[in-house]
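User: Is it possible to get a 3D structure for a protein together with its bound compound? The compound here is cytidine-5'-monophosphate. I've pasted both below.
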Amino acid sequence: MDSASTDLRPRLALALDSDDLVAAMRLARALNGHFGVAKIGLELYSAAGPESIGAIGGLGYDVFLDLKLHDIPTTVARAARVLGALGVSYLTMHAAGGTDMLRAGVDGLRTGAGNAGLEEPAALAVTVLTSEADAAAELGRRVEAAAAAGCPGVVCAAADLAEVDRRGPGLIRVVPGIRLPGDPADDQRRVASPGDALAAGADVIVVGRSVTAAPDPVEAADRLHRTVLGADV
Ligand code: C5P
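Assistant: Yes, that's possible. Here is the predicted structure of the complex:
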C-alpha cells in the first residue's frame, strides 16, 4: 500500500453490518489495510455487545459505534456514560432528539471516558437518514442543534454537505450512502460515489455493501482506493 492509500485510511469507515462477530472479524482482518475506521452498528452490537468493540479495536481500527441514541436526555446521558468507557472513537445520536438530548449525550461520553482514563469519543449527530428521500426542512435545524450541543460532528448525506457547512461550520462531516460506480443503491435513497463525497467535503465516508457484499471484498476495497485517488480529493 503506497502512502496516498495509507493517508486515506482514517477517512474510510468500514460498516461491519453483520450479526456474527466471527464473520465481522474475518472481514475486518481482510480489510485492515484499506480502512482505518470500523463501524459497529445496531446489528453487530445487538449480537455481540461490548465484546465486539474490544475485538475490532484490537485489530487496530478506530471504532465507530453507530447506535443512534434517541431517548430522553437522562437516559441518553446514562447510556453515553457507559459507552464512553468502552474505548470507541465515535458514537452516533439522533439530532432529532434535540439540543438538550445531544448535550446530555456529549456530557455522558465525556464523563464515561474520563472515569475510564480514555480519550473522549466524538459524538456524531445523525441529521437526516440517507435512506430518507428528502432532507428538506429538518436539516438546518438539526445541524444547528448539533453545534449548539457541542457535538464535534454530524452524519449527513453527500448532497447535504454544503448546507451542513453553512449551518455548522467546523463540524466533522461523516457521510454514509456511498456506492462504487455501477452498484445498486439498495435501501439508500441519497447515494454518492466515494470520490464525489470526499470532493464535496466529507471528512469520513462510511462504506458498507459496496465492499462487504461484493463477491471479492478486497478487490472492491482496492477499487475504492483507486477511484478515490483517481478523483484526487
Ligand atoms: O451498506 P451501506 O453502505 O448502505 O451501509 C451504510 C451504513 O451506514 C449502514 O451501517 C447504516 O446503518 C449507516 N448509516 C446510514 N445513514 C445514516 C447513518 C448511518 O446509512 N444517516
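The chain has eleven helices and eight strands. The beta strands are 12-15, 37-41, 62-69, 90-94, 122-126, 153-155, 172-175, 204-207.
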